[in-house]
């Protein structure tokens, strides 16, 4: 069989540069945006550190990109001397040689095809030319830095999606790009699809090529789903997911039990609930799984604490709210930090956010930016809560305190990565250098 051309180094004396009409080496580039996702059945623990595969399957909701997204420009040229990476405007020295970054770049490049000019249909880069080009990547995210919202999922998903577009990559099996993104950050594999997305743990194949993400249903299947995210202030630095889960695997018997016995039935039930638009079942499983994940953190030796007193007071308020309503109207979930993600339905979103605003009020002067969506914010501010509900939450001991929650995002489920026009590119097409200037954000 013919040898694959892609990774064979070009003999130098035969190589020639792909030139532009002005006689310079051409720079090829693509820009994409990618969403974040919030797991409802959590990934915690690696089966293989080398392949970055999980000890259990997980499932998540992909969030809309209007507020929270990563934007990445991937470029390649024969004139570039080394691979370079800029994050939020600053060059990351040495990042281009990190294991996670290399797995993504080299993984997508192996799937490279000819690059075709969509206007003329002409081949502008033959697939065997990619191996002779270095790449420059620039990326930023719209997550407020102090918010501690997982940005690595969106970031690695954007990286893989931008490279796939640049190299015109073709998967050799369904989900191959998600298996590559997984090696950047596990949760990133789920951000390559919109809506409700499962990451199947895999493990039947020796190379873990069966550890891939799969769309259960697109965002259009259940358009009424909403998320209210409470950004809980936290001065302390979190234990990173990677090191936290490694300690949990080494020490928590509860985690081993969870992976073996608990997760798969929950996966089956939550997928069924999602397809049937059964919010009560969906919400109960999401809450129970978040609680069990944090229980495994407490069962880790030494224990890891991601939630704080504010997080726990939100949990109490949600249970009181559901009891008052006589049905599950809201479901909380917490990742490796104190922020609360509350799932609800369109028809209850104003009421839920009004309750949260009542007990987690805005700091003076921060009113305007406290709720991400101005139209929603004005509905929330004018909503009148049932005094019985307020009294019931007060009984938990919660005293409204400004500053416990920094801000709220109001969002919904959304699609996977989107291709952006060249006007959104953050690499200069002439110099190949980053053009994004880091903006200091308040929170
Ligand atoms: C609690 O995907 O950040 O958010 O694979 O080591 O990069 P690495 O971990 P990461 O872990 C996410 C953990 C979680 C749960 C989840 O998203 O499923």
Quick take:
The protein contains eleven helices and 18 strands. It has 443 residues and is an alpha+beta fold. Helix 5 runs antiparallel to helix 6 (279-299) and helix 7 (309-325) runs antiparallel to helix 11.
List keywords for this structure.
globular; disordered N terminus; 11 helices; 443 residues; 6-stranded mixed beta sheet; binds ligand DP6
The unique ligands bound to this protein are: ligand DP6
**Uncertain regions spanning at least 5 consecutive residues:** 1-15
Give the biggest sheet.
6 strands, mixed
User: What fraction of the residues are assigned to beta strands by DSSP?
Assistant: 15-25%
Number of helical segments with 4 or more residues: 11
Order of adjacent strands in the largest pleated sheet: 8-7-11-6-1-18
Structural class, from helix and strand content?
Answer: alpha+beta
Helix content: 25-40%
SSE diagram, text form:
Elements: E1 27-34, E2 37-41, E3 46-48, E4 53-54, E5 58-62, E6 70-77, E7 84-87, E8 90-91, H1 99-109, E9 115-116, E10 123-125, E11 134-141, H2 152-166, H3 176-184, E12 196-199, E13 213-217, E14 225-232, H4 241-251, H5 253-276, H6 279-299, H7 309-325, E15 330-333, E16 340-345, H8 346-359, H9 367-370, H10 374-382, H11 387-394, E17 405-412, E18 418-420
Parallel strand pairs: 7-11
Antiparallel strand pairs: 1-6, 1-18, 2-5, 3-4, 5-12, 6-11, 7-8, 9-10, 12-13, 14-16, 14-17, 15-16
The structure holds ligand DP6.
């Amino acid at each position: 069989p013919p040898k694959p051309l892609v990774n064979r180094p070009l003999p130098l004396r035969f190589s020639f540069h792909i030139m532009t009409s002005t006689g310079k080496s051409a720079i090829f580039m693509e820009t994409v945006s990618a969403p974040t996702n919030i797991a409802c059945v959590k990934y915690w623990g690696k089966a293989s550190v080398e392949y970055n595969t999980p000890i259990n399957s997980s499932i998540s909701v992909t969030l809309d990109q209007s507020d929270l997204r990563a934007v990445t420009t991937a470029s390649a040229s024969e004139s570039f001397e080394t691979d370079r990476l800029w994050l939020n405007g600053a060059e990351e020295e040495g990042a281009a040689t990190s294991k996670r970054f290399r797995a993504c770049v080299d993984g997508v490049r192996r799937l490279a095809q000819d690059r075709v000019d969509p206007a003329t249909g002409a081949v502008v880069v033959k697939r065997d030319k990619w191996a002779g080009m270095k790449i420059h990547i620039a990326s930023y995210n719209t997550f407020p830095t102090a918010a501690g919202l997982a940005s690595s999922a969106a970031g690695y998903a954007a990286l893989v999606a931008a490279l796939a577009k640049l190299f015109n990559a073709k998967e050799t099996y369904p989900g191959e790009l998600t298996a590559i993104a997984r090696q950047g950050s596990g949760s990133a594999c789920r951000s390559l699809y919109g809506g409700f997305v499962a990451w199947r743990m895999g493990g039947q194949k020796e190379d873990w090529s069966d550890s891939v993400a799969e769309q259960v249903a697109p965002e259009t299947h259940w358009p009424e789903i909403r998320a209210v995210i409470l950004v809980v202030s936290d001065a302390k630095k979190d234990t990173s997911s990677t090191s936290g889960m490694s300690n949990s695997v080494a020490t928590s018997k509860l985690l081993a039990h969870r992976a073996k016995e608990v997760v798969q039935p929950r996966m089956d039930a939550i997928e069924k609930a999602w397809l049937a638009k059964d919010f009560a079942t969906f919400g109960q499983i999401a809450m129970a799984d978040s609680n069990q994940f944090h229980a495994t953190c407490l069962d880790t030796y030494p224990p890891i604490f991601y939630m704080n007193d504010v997080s726990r007071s939100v949990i109490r308020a949600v249970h009181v709210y559901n009891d008052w309503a006589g049905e599950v109207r809201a479901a909380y979930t917490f990742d490796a930090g104190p922020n609360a993600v509350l799932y609800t339905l369109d028809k209850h979103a104003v009421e839920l956010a009004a309750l949260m605003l009542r007990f987690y009020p805005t700091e003076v002067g921060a009113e305007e930016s406290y709720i991400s969506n101005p139209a929603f914010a004005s509905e929330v501010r004018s909503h009148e809560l049932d005094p019985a509900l307020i009294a019931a939450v007060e009984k938990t001991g919660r005293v409204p305190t400004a500053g416990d929650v920094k801000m709220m995002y109001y969002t919904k489920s959304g699609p996977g990565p989107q291709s952006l026009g060249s006007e959104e590119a953050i690499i200069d097409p002439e110099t190949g250098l980053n053009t994004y200037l880091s903006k200091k954000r308040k929170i």
